UniProtKB/TrEMBL annotation:
Family to which this protein belongs: Belongs to the Nudix hydrolase family. NudC subfamily.
GO MF term set: hydrolase activity
Catalyses which reaction(s): a 5'-end NAD(+)-phospho-ribonucleoside in mRNA + H2O = a 5'-end phospho-adenosine-phospho-ribonucleoside in mRNA + beta-nicotinamide D-ribonucleotide + 2 H(+)
InterPro entries named in the record: NAD-cap_RNA_hydrolase_NudC, NADH_PPase-like_N, NudC-like_C, NUDIX_hydrolase-like_dom_sf, NUDIX_hydrolase_CS, NUDIX_hydrolase_dom, Znr_NADH_PPase
Protein name, per record: NAD(+) diphosphatase
Recorded superkingdom: Bacteria
EC class name: hydrolase
Species assigned in the record: Rhodococcoides kroppenstedtii
Domain Nudix hydrolase per the UniProt entry, residue ranges: 145-270
CC cofactor: Zn(2+); Mg(2+)
Keywords: Hydrolase, Magnesium, Metal-binding, NAD
Keyword Hydrolase: yes
UniProt EC number: 3.6.1.22
Length: 290
C-alpha cells in the first residue's frame, strides 16, 4: 500500500530557489507532527494553502514535488489540532497520490529530526536543496536522506506450508514473516540467509526477490524475498528476537487473512499484519499462488 506513488518529485527544482519561490503562492502544504501524524478532513489527508503558512518557503519546509502543476511541501509542527491520523491506521485508504505525499513527507522529516549534526565532523547542519540534503555549517559537507534497508522474507516449504514467527513483545497469536536489517558489507541475499539462520536456525535455498516498500518508521525500506526451507528441520531461536515460530498450512493462512488483521476483535487462532504492510501482501500473494 505504501509503495503507490505517482508523485512527480521534480528533482530539477530542488535547488532552483527562484522557481520554488514563484510556485509558493499556489502551493499546498502538509503539516506533520513529531510522531508522523497528519491532519485529515472528511476522510482525506488535509493540506492547506502555502500562504496560510508563510509568505515564502520557511527554512524548515521540505519540497515534496508537484501535482497537477502545483507545488507540494511539508512542514514539521509540534502539535496538530482537530482530527489527525498516521500511516499505520490510515495508509490503506489513502489514494495513490496522497500515499506518495505522506510517505515522502514523513520519511524526509524523520531524517531531518535525526540529522541536525554532521556525521562527519559533528558540527550543526542546515537544511538545503529544499529539504533533500543538509550541509555542515563548519565545512560545507553535504549529506543526503538515509533509508535503512531491511529484508523481509516469506519462508516456505516449496508446497503448502509457510513459516510464521512472533517477537517476544507481541501478544499471543500475532505472527508475521521474518525480517531484519541489512548489515554493512552484506548483500541482500546474504542478509536473507543470515537473518533466517539467526532468528530460527534454518538454512534456506531458492531466494527470490518479490518487491519493496518504503517504511518510514522511522526511515526504512523493506525489501521482500521468498526463500525455501525444510519444514522437518529443527527450529532454534538463537538471537532472542523470536519467541515462537511455527509452520502453517496454506488453508490456515487463508483463514487468518479472512479474519482480519492484528487489530481485529476476533478469537481467530492466528492474527496477521495489517493491510499497509508488505508482509500481508506477500502472504496474500502466496495464498493465491496456483
Amino acid at each position: 500500500m505504501l509503495s503507490r506513488s505517482p508523485l512527480d518529485r521534480a528533482e530539477e527544482l530542488r535547488k532552483d530557489s527562484d522557481a520554488l519561490t514563484a510556485g509558493w503562492p499556489t502551493a499546498s502544504v502538509l503539516r506533520v507532527d513529531p510522531v508522523g501524524r497528519v491532519p485529515v478532513a472528511d476522510g482525506a489527508v488535509a493540506m492547506i494553502p502555502a500562504t496560510d503558512v508563510a509568505d515564502a518557503p520557511p527554512t524548515d519546509a521540505v519540497f515534496l514535488g508537484r501535482a497537477e502543476g502545483r507545488h507540494l511541501w511539508a512542514v514539521p509542527v509540534e502539535s496538530l489540532g482537530g482530527e489527525t491520523t498516521d500511516l499505520r491506521s490510515f495508509g490503506d485508504v489513502l489514494t495513490e497520490s496522497s500515499a506518495g505525499v505522506v510517505v515522502t513527507a514523513v520519511a524526509l522529516l524523520n531524517w531531518h529530526r535525526s540529522a541536525r549534526f554532521s556525521a562527519r565532523d559533528g558540527s550543526p547542519t542546515r537544511l538545503s536543496a529544499a529539504g533533500w540534503s543538509r550541509v555542515s555549517e563548519a565545512t560545507g559537507h553535504e549529506e543526503w536522506p538515509r533509508s535503512d534497508p531491511a529484508i523481509i522474507v516469506l519462508v516456505h516449504d516449496g508446497a503448502d506450508r509457510v513459516l510464521l514467527a512472533r517477537q517476544p513483545t507481541w501478544p499471543e497469536r500475532r505472527m508475521s514473516v521474518l525480517a531484519g536489517f541489512v548489515e554493512a558489507g552484506e548483500s541482500l541475499e546474504t542478509c536473507v540467509a543470515r537473518e533466517v539462520r539467526e532468528e530460527v536456525g534454518l538454512g534456506v535455498t531458492d531466494i527470490d526477490y518479490l518487491g519493496s516498500q518504503p517504511w518510514p518508521f522511522p526511515r526504512s525500506i523493506m525489501i521482500g524475498f521468498a526463500a525455501r526451507a525444510d519444514p522437518d528441520a529443527s527450529l532454534a531461536f538463537t538471537d532472542g528476537e523470536i519467541a515462537e515460530a511455527r509452520w502453517f498450512h496454506r488453508s490456515e493462512v487463508e483463514a487468518a487473512l479472512a479474519a482480519g488483521d492484528w487489530a481485529a476483535s476476533t478469537s481467530a487462532p492466528l492474527l496477521l499484519p495489517g493491510s499497509i504492510s508488505i508482509a500481508r501482501a506477500m502472504l496474500e500473494s502466496w495464498v493465491a499462488r496456483p
